[in-house]
Design brief:
The chain has 83 residues and is α+β, with helices and mostly antiparallel strands. The protein contains two helices and two strands, in the order ββαα. A two-stranded antiparallel ribbon has the order 1-2.
Length: 83
């Protein structure tokens, strides 16, 4: 469902959760997919993530290297919903 991913971390996160401020060490993962595969990817990440409400956000791509964008589309189109 993702053509590739980048993992950064550990990073320090501070957030408000259930009425308290929390500070934790986390990892940031950027996954490359298409709009058509986004819902499938979100479903898999939610199922595998340890948090009740993981941070999952989608950022639209306004442009980029056509070869890279085509590669992302080709790689995610070949994947089944099971990975």
């Amino acid at each position: 469902m993702a053509a590739g991913a980048q993992i950064s971390g550990p990073i320090s996160s501070t957030y408000w959760w259930q009425g308290e401020i929390h500070r934790n060490e986390e990892f940031l993962i950027l996954m490359k997919t298409t709009r058509e595969r986004l819902d499938d990817l979100v479903e898999v990440v939610r199922a595998m993530h340890s948090y009740d409400t993981p941070e999952i956000v989608a950022v639209p791509i306004e442009g980029g290297l056509a070869d890279y964008l085509n590669w992302t589309t080709e790689e995610t189109a070949a994947a089944s919903p099971d990975g």
